[in-house]
Amino acid sequence: MDRVAIIGASMTQFGQRDAWIRELLAEAGQAALADADVSPDEIEHLYVSNMASGEFEGQTGVPNALAHDLAAMPAYTARIDQTSSSGGAGVYAAWQSVASGASDMTMLVGGEKMTHRSTAESTDVIASLTHPVEYKHGVTLPSFAGLTARLYLDTYDAPRESLGKVAVKNHKNGVDNPHAQFRKEVDLDTVLDSPVVADPLRLYDFCPITDGSAALVFCPESVAREYTDDYAVISGIGGATDTHVVHERADPTTMGGVVNSSEIAYEMADLEPDDIEVAELHDMFTILEFLQSEDLGFFEKGEGWKAVEEGVTDRDGDLPINTSGGLKSKGHPLGASGVAQVYEIYKQLIGDAGKRQVDADVGLACNVGGFGNCVTTTIMESR
Amino acid sequence: MDRVAIIGASMTQFGQRDAWIRELLAEAGQAALADADVSPDEIEHLYVSNMASGEFEGQTGVPNALAHDLAAMPAYTARIDQTSSSGGAGVYAAWQSVASGASDMTMLVGGEKMTHRSTAESTDVIASLTHPVEYKHGVTLPSFAGLTARLYLDTYDAPRESLGKVAVKNHKNGVDNPHAQFRKEVDLDTVLDSPVVADPLRLYDFCPITDGSAALVFCPESVAREYTDDYAVISGIGGATDTHVVHERADPTTMGGVVNSSEIAYEMADLEPDDIEVAELHDMFTILEFLQSEDLGFFEKGEGWKAVEEGVTDRDGDLPINTSGGLKSKGHPLGASGVAQVYEIYKQLIGDAGKRQVDADVGLACNVGGFGNCVTTTIMESR
């Protein structure tokens, strides 16, 4: 079968942006077209990953607006929403559009405009994704992160400092990402002394609220060869849900959606966890990087923290994780995040990651919706 | 290639429902599983067609909630939004999931809960899909319908009564649809004397605001044969956008999205318009049934109105259109409508349409988003 290739990518500056969702999407879309050297009228399918333009801006129909703004008519469009994993779900939709033969040239643009709303308002929109038994009692995603972090530290005898080191590592990586929201190193004391948000987690254990957009151009590998020598392929991709009610999970330190989606992706790619050479994980909270690194099979259960302590996941380690800076320092514009993860892996695989470049031919991106309620895992390989 | 089959379907009662979106989706989903004789744990992908649960109910993450409510974990889920054509876009997503090999058993559930909000509030959510140059000046979708109807009547010398006859026909069909919001015939005088909404269109030229849900179960044809002899196949499917700004269209009586999406679907199915034996069109406004019936190639440009006058599109005519009652009498719960269109064609093709049954082996559903901003066309055949 003709594999699905990525032949171009872009991301906007992430952060507090003086632009609406339509402008952010168009900015990323135009840049990705230029990067792929594809004209708008070649686009057959145009997907938009976005959770909540209606709730955040009172603007719906954003995919049609984007087709207009990019002059991509009559390209087919649709919006893909999977809450904070909308980007990964968009990658899956774009992959399916090419793999099914429906489209020979698909663009995915993910984005979210959030910072014009207060943190309370944004949190309210995000909290509405959880089960009513949870959010009506005040158990929001940060609360789950705190509870899970405490359980993890106790169960696996991990030091509190190990969580802080995830923040330190990802901030250090973000310094070299020109699109990142925060391009500054933080030291461990700063992280550990920052204000408590959900004990034991503190301010620097959390990603920020962010505006931004990212875009990718997909086509069959046979078509890709006509455009460029610098492409990457998606060799495995899968998605899975976990219980919508978090307290129904047998072991809250295991994310079933990560386990199940990655099993599908590994099988499709015919690869093992040991084959992965660089990964972007969904570090919305520092604790999530531990859980995913274990549930993806990179490290034994309860030992993800040791990998961070030992520098295994540093940029110059055996398995660099979040070379982009992760959600932690790059920022987390919901619909864009999963797209930006794949952007980073693509850049690494084609050797265009600048100061962030590592030596890798196989990469993985794991995008988490809710508190692991739905997860998409994508495995990519250099051509 | 193994074609994509539909092996089960359901729709809830459409109308004013005392149930939230999650309940409506679960009701349709459970009924479709029962209809297909498929257990929840067989579902690999679960898509939800829904435009605006966040705006209407303050509830996001609905696909995860549905996976929970149907006990379909760890099935992958995502929400597909394409405004009023979200249902058709969901059908396309479900088709792609099976055709790409990503899923061997996909469920699509479309739904919307709207009637708890005032007409003004609902209209406001819907109007936000249009370009700001339009809605900020008060040009809403009903306004476009009035302007287009006037232009159509003038250009093609069609009588005002012909529009009314669309309403009369579809209400008559709806009487035999147990799930329809309105199950009563209306006479032409009632339609023509109803209050003006957007001249020349009156109240009975418009579909109602509706709560409801519909669901479909998709799998490869080779798998379908293991489950049932009563299945239908999707032999052609396509989607396309038109200009996001309606006044940029060269001829406002032509819907480019209908033309372009159906060309893709016809080519894929290797069929011509003359091969279609039953169709569900998006009669959100009576005028749209004329435009689609022409742009799909059923009738010459400017002659769709004659077909209605001559009874060609009646249930016992040569090309029955909207045997379900259409959006006009069945109702229009945004995310459900495109799914319910395919439900009707499926029922007709497997010979399970009860009093609405016509003699057909090839059917078509055309689902329109915005004022033709994005359109999905699906062609189905009996096995």
TrEMBL record, chains A, B:
It comes from the Archaea. Transmembrane segments: none annotated. It comes from Haloferax marisrubri. GO terms for molecular function: acyltransferase activity, transferring groups other than amino-acyl groups. Residues 238-381 form the Thiolase C-terminal domain. Residues 4-222 form the Thiolase N-terminal domain. GO terms for biological process: isoprenoid biosynthetic process. InterPro entries: Thiolase, Thiolase-like, Thiolase_C_2, Thiolase_N. This is 3-ketoacyl-CoA thiolase. Keywords: Isoprene biosynthesis. The lineage of its organism: Archaea, Methanobacteriati, Methanobacteriota, Stenosarchaea group, Halobacteria. The keyword Nuclease does not apply.
